[in-house]
Amino acid sequence: MNLFNSALGRNITFVHPAYFIITGFIGISNIKYYYIFLFFVFIVSVVGNAAVMVVILLDHNLRSPKYVAVFNLAFVDLLGNTALVPKVLDVFLFNNPRIPFNDCLTYLFFCYTCLSMQSFNLVALAYDRLIAIIFPLHYAVKVTHRFMFSLILSCWLFVILAVLICVFLLTRLSFCKSVIVNSYFCDHGQIYRLSCNDHFPNYVVSCLYPVVIFWLPLAFILLSYFYIVCTLRKVATLQQGLKAFKTCIGHLLLVAIYFIPMLITFTMMADIQPNARIINLSLTSVFPPMLNPIIYVLQTQEIKESLKRILKIEKCKKKIHRNVCAEVISTK
Questions:
Q1: Would you list the DSSP string of 196-255?
Q2: I need a labelling partner for 11 at 20 to 30 A (CA). Which of 79, 164, 217, 226 fits?
Q3: Is residue 259 a contact partner of residue 213, using CB atoms and an 8 Å limit?
């Protein structure tokens, strides 16, 4: 970090605290039950996303470019909840609210990276639906494995760079007012406000972040579906249009579950009561990763058929194994 703590060749000393104290909820009794609830949500999320990833890996029929994005979404959900929830439980259930300065910035990096990557992953899935419906004959040419891998990789690089800028700007702040963070994790907005030197660059980033990470991806998704609806009205009958649009229901549910609470949280952050903000942000962080695999299993015919095939194969293996064992016992 010394590289980022020198400006234009001049050595600048920044005052960094040994640790931050995460306060969480204020004045709410029996709040531990809420954290236990988050733990059960975390377990369901881990099991669901791991199952989706395993099904995609095992079934060769799910190796299309679309499922590259679905696999990445499950991976991001799994990584994000794993980075967030265990530390939340350690802080509040096991009463370890002090987080060392560098650990706090690392915590912030992983949480914000995964939270942001979900947004761009939904953009990749929206593009897939757009090409599949508008240009079905050119889909295999326009949406290839190479293209989807490149798109996902580009999103990862952009998000990592954006979050690193937030983290590096925090290292250029001096903290001499307080070390108490009024949130349930190392929240960028709550941390930079504790500084006692100029934090205008951090303020600018905190204003640009929701626009670039949330509003622009949402605008692309909404425009893509507007174009899909307009095109279907011109070239397809009502029944054909409904059949084509049915393939988008799962993705639209994911978009609504992710963006609506996220945008409320980040655009009205200053006007929301602290406890309400923490509840909204915490549920926004853990609920979409839990619901994403459930929605995709229920709404995607290919995954349901794949699960049926895998279960049938396992049943057949067990049946064959029992028959072999019975034959061995009978020969003895």
A1: SS--HHHHHHHHHHHIIIIIHHHHHHHHHHHHHHHHHHHHS-HHHHHHHHHTTHHHHHHH
A2: 164
A3: no
Q: Read off the tokens for 116.
A: 């942001």
Report how far Cα 46 is from the mean position of its chain's Cα atoms. 13
Tell me the C-alpha distance between 59 and 306, whole Å: 7
Tell me the pLDDT tens digit for each residue of 272-292: 778 888 888 888 889 889 988
d(CA 129, CA 136): 10
CB 188 within 8 A of CB 112: yes
Say how far apart CA 159 and CA 187 lie, in whole Å: 17
Q: Flag whether pLDDT at 332 surpasses 50.
A: no
φ and ψ of 58, to 5 deg: -80, -35
Confidence of residue 2 (pLDDT cuts 50, 70, 90): very low
Taking a C-beta distance cutoff of 8 angstroms, is the pair 138, 173 a contact?
Answer: no
Q: Distance (Å, rounded) from C-alpha 19 to C-alpha 16? A: 8
Strand partners, 100: 19
Across 60-74, 98-112, 161-175, least confident range: 60-74
CB 202 within 8 A of CB 192: yes
Give 173-178 contacts, CB < 8 A, sequence gap 24+.
173/14, 173/197, 173/199, 173/202, 174/14, 174/15, 174/16, 175/15, 175/16, 175/17, 176/15
Of the chain, the percentage scoring pLDDT greater than 70 comes to 87
DSSP secondary structure string, 15-46?
---SEEEE--SSS-TTTHHHHHHHHHHHHHHH
Place of tokens 């279960």: 311
The pLDDT, as a whole number, for residue 245 is 76
